[in-house]
Amino acid sequence: MVNSIIWFRNDLRINDNAVINYCLKNKRKVLPVYIYDPSTSLGSASKWWLKRSLISLNNSLKGNLIVIEGEPSKMLLDLVNKNSIKEILWNERYSKYDRSQDNEIINIYKNKEVNCITFHSCLLKNPQKTLKKDATPFKVYTPFYKQQYQGIAYELFNYNTDEIDYIDCDDKKQILKILDMTLRTEKWQEKLQDEWSPGEAGAQEKLKVFLSNGLNGYSEGRNRPDKQHTSMLSPHIRFGEISIREVAKAVENKNTEDAEIFYKELVWREFSYHLLYHFPHLVDKNLQKKFDKFKWLDNKDHLESWQKGMTGYPIIDAGMRQLYQTGYMHNRVRMIVGSFLVKNLMLHWSHGQKWFWDTLVDADIASNSASWQWVAGTGADAAPYFRIFNPITQSKKFDPDGVYIKKYVHELKNIPNNIIHMPSDYDIETLKNYGLILGEDYPFPIVDLSITRNRALSAFKELSAEK
Predict the structure, then answer these.
(1) Which end of the chain has less Cβ packing within 10 Å, N or C?
(2) N-terminal to C-terminal alpha carbon distance within the chain
(3) CB 340 within 8 A of CB 347
(4) What are 196-244's pLDDT values in tens digits?
(5) Nearest residue to 354 (alpha-carbon basis) of 26, 45, 35, 32
(6) 6, β-bridge pairs
(7) Helix, strand and coil in the chain, % to nearest 5
(8) Gyration radius from the chain CA atoms
(9) What is the pLDDT of residues 259-306, one digit of tens each?
(10) What pTM, to 2 d.p., does this model score?
């Protein structure tokens, strides 16, 4: 029997996994491995999630997962030599760094009696194959969706995970010790355990709850942070604890507008990976090069106020506090806080990208980079530069009763609905009647929306006028 390494990365599940399907079909004896590479950037919230996800995966693998820390090519070579390995199997990832690492490992074993076999199990489609008819990549979402994803039916792998045949290896006994050493939990992360259940079982439960309670009304409800219409699956999908195909298949036969809109959100993730694959500089450079000349501001006080949820704009502050308290932020609010950072504060989108990367449990290299460039107007985007979200208008429309605001901005819990969206518009005595003193209990707005909007429009117009 052939001894094979299953190299887990962002596919931390045993169901509907192309690698496991291959091993069972071909009767491989397997050594499941996760390698924590300290040279890669992983945010604090993601480390918290990863630790618990690996514990869950190890349980699913009946205690046979090996977790080691180090440079992957060296760690794999050591395992190959110790365990008479003839195959190394993994699901591909799509950043420039990951692809370079994959190629390096494949080249190492080119002249050895070890086969490296890769699969595509982290996306609905291989981004190499999602090209336009002229063989160039898409830069606009709608034709990408219509030409590549509309009307597709998905099939899942069918196998019995109890039939996985494991290689006996002493290294597996060190998993908890290594996790405690490499993925240390910070104090602020302790509250995350009340919000989430990382792992495959937690992902399945989230999908079940969403299909029962959240999908109906999703097309409208997804924009309401005060309601429960989001799937909350994003961190589970990011770590591969549930197959993206399984999520898509769960809604493909619903034939409702809600199901179609939700499926389009899944394809938005695909679009982000399409961009990352074909434009790898998406992570750290403007996709539209003209923005390289844009004169961003550098106000550290404004950035800190934004990060702490102390801007004086309740919907912004609620979103930023939800992020820090739960490791998550409602998607509509992400757009609002993102627009405020890059348009009203005129701070570079990379500031938001880095903060989200560190604090989001669903921090995903493709979605995080593509979404920040989208909201900044510097990325792949058919929308014009003058798209600037007004946080007060957005708040009144999508959190009309202030339910979301009051949940996270406790200073405003006694403020009535007609005042809560912008307390600073009201006189001191009115606010005092509700127990609020601006400048003491809650900050005055750090910027004027009208002035900063016009400032941004002027700067963008000036840039667009340049030849």
Answers:
(1) C
(2) 65
(3) no
(4) 999 999 999 999 999 999 999 999 999 999 998 999 999 999 999 999 9
(5) 45
(6) 32, 89
(7) 55, 5, 40
(8) 24
(9) 999 999 999 999 999 999 999 999 999 999 989 999 999 999 999 999
(10) 0.95
